[in-house]
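hey m, so remember when u said the tokens were messed up on ur end? i reran from scratch. heres the input so u can diff it against urs
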Amino acid sequence: MDYELNQREFDQLSRLVFDKSGINLHEGKRELVKARLSSRLRETGLNSFQAYYDYVMREETGQELITLLDSISTNLTSFFREPAHFTLLRQELLPRLAARKGRDSRRLWVWSAGCSTGEEPYSIALVLLESLSNIVGWDVKVLATDLSTRALDTARAGIYRAERLATVPRELLQRYFQRGVKEWAGHYRVKQEVRRLIEFRRANLLELPPLLGPFELIFCRNVMIYFNTETQAKAISLLRDRLQPDGCLFIGHSESLARIQHQLRYLKPAVYVKPAEGGVVGRA
């Protein structure tokens, strides 16, 4: 059955998605919304997008709203995506942080916001394991959050097809991944020593529950491209408040803070630092 999505229905759905997630579904996304939600209409036996919207609004558990947001969310990622960030982390930031931390305060908390199917937090954990000497003596936590429960299920499982691991250096693949056999041939699973560093949790960036923090490092990359300028400014403010003084925020290379006032200092392309003592309000 081919469902028609009229302007009123699209406006209702896009407003709901915006209110609940900050994702800005402009008119150019109308066909995407139609394509992704049509299957949900078939599954629920509803005959129109208006009926589906009404169903989401009256469904008391909130589970259908989560399913709606799962359907709309785009989860494109890869291991060591935007490799310059991981080079900076490994060569400059972690050595500097290790030198600054005394023996009694070896704390390193990292937040991967919008972690999708897990490649980013696992990449971060691999760098930490390779870069921090005597990591067992550190208080290391990687909090990985996403709006999509479907993506988080994949992330928690930590199982990936071999082609998804093409950007993982061979020595890390051999050291930190288990090769699947029999029905799992062609797959790899992240080993427990990596997985134990990470906590996966569903969270809406704009409606944050109490989280671990503050963080020395926050990765929020390729998330704000779905937000309008006002929502981007709100997100940056929330992220900045969760950073430790001298902590670093990583955003996507396709994203910009140019039109947003913020109290962050530019460090490298798509990397910003929270000044230790307030700092000057600036623009990227």
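this time it looks ok to me. The radius of gyration is 20 Å. if urs says something different then somethings off w ur setup not the seq
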